[in-house]
Automatic annotation (TrEMBL):
Lineage: Bacteria, Bacillati, Actinomycetota, Actinomycetes, Frankiales
Originating species: Frankia canadensis
Membrane spanning residue stretches: 12-33, 39-62
UniProt-annotated stretches for the region Disordered: 71-128
Keywords: Membrane, Transmembrane, Transmembrane helix
Amino acid composition bias (Gly residues), ranges on this chain: 72-82
Protein name in UniProt: Uncharacterized protein
Length: 128
């Protein structure tokens, strides 16, 4: 049996799809409420509005998952998603004594999704 992992973008896709569906249904419900207002239809509209707000909050939280830990010298750290290209070029760096990093010189850490190219170049780096 093959078990596939839930993709990183899966939750975002489900939330975005649910938001589109709730938006379409709320248009129909708004039309019904405008034509024949009644308590059940008004409650349904209120529930849809709360659902759409909740889905938007979820999408916002998923896009800003928190800051990445500090990168090495010349590195880049993006707390959320990145849509622009990122390029690092590091030369002649020595490890700074006492500085703790989770990755080396010129590293790129992205807390969310990356939608563009990432290029790194590291030369003559001494770590020790």
């Amino acid at each position: 049996m093959i078990v596939m992992a839930w993709p990183a973008w899966g939750t975002r896709a489900v939330a975005a799809g649910g938001s589109v569906l709730a938006g379409a249904v709320s248009g129909v419900v708004t039309n019904v409420v405008s034509d024949r207002p009644s308590l059940p239809w008004i409650v349904a509209l209120a529930v849809l509005v709360v659902l759409m707000v909740g889905l938007q909050v979820l999408l916002t939280v998923l896009d800003h998952r928190g800051a990445a830990s500090p990168p090495g010298v010349g590195g880049v750290s993006v707390g959320g998603s990145s849509s622009g290209s990122i390029r690092t070029d590091v030369a002649g760096v020595r490890r700074v004594p006492g500085r703790r990093t989770s990755s080396g010189a010129g590293s790129v850490q992205i807390g969310g999704d990356s939608r563009a190219s990432i290029r790194t170049r590291v030369r003559d780096v001494e770590e020790g």
